[in-house]
Amino acid sequence: MFYAPDILQTLILPEEESQHCVQVLRATVGQEILITDGVGHLYRARITNPHRKHCEVEIIATEHPEPLHEGYVHIAIAPTKNMDRLEWLVEKATEMGVDEITPLLCRHSERKTLNEERLRKIMVAAAKQSLKTTFPTLNPLTRFDDFVRSVQADDRLIAHCMTQEEADELQIQAAYKPTTEKNAIWQLIHRGNSVIVMIGPEGDFSPEEIKQAIQHQYVPCSLGKARLRTETAGLFACNTAILLNS
Hints:
Blueprint: E1 2-3, H1 7-10, H2 15-24, E2 32-36, E3 42-49, E4 56-63, E5 72-77, H3 83-96, E6 100-105, H4 116-129, E7 137-138, E8 142-143, H5 144-150, E9 155-159, H6 164-169, E10 183-184, H7 185-188, E11 194-199, H8 207-215, E12 219-222, H9 230-244
Parallel strand pairs: 1-2, 5-6, 5-11, 6-7, 6-8, 9-11, 9-12, 10-12
Antiparallel strand pairs: 2-3, 3-4
Helix pairs in contact: 3-4, 3-9
């Protein structure tokens, strides 16, 4: 499958896609291919001019595949110090069907810059490989304060590692069940709802960030008993939300 966001207007594949189609796959005149615009449309097309820089096509049919899951899944995650791990998360979450990813700049963040262009290329490649016709949204690196104040969802969750004793000292017991156990993520996501799950950096969210999130109606959630790496936690949350909406 090829990605061409303006295919209906141009009837020409972008240069990189043209090169892959003509030089790598050896496509010829009359050959049929699949093209998506990344916003939910799948086009069946026939090649009319297999040029390696601007491959021309004609549209034969248009399809509108059904969404792969209900609701809307948004993962907001602090970038890892090792970029390979964040890139892995973006790739795998895209394959699973995440709708939106926001990199978060938190108090304990060790990485404060991103190569957004590279991340978008990874996302596009993963979406194409897994035959997605609706690509996720990748937002720029966003300050934690700005995110919790401005982004809305039906189910708003924050995954953190704070113990009950620490929570008591900070007087945020309201974040927990009467049993003193944090709510499991699978108990807090409601089918068909939009959901945001925030995942903190290697040093976790600061106590002030957790309190601020709770003040903005975020509910602390548990991802289980195991201590997970940041990128593993993000993928676990993504997979759980999508499974509950499948």
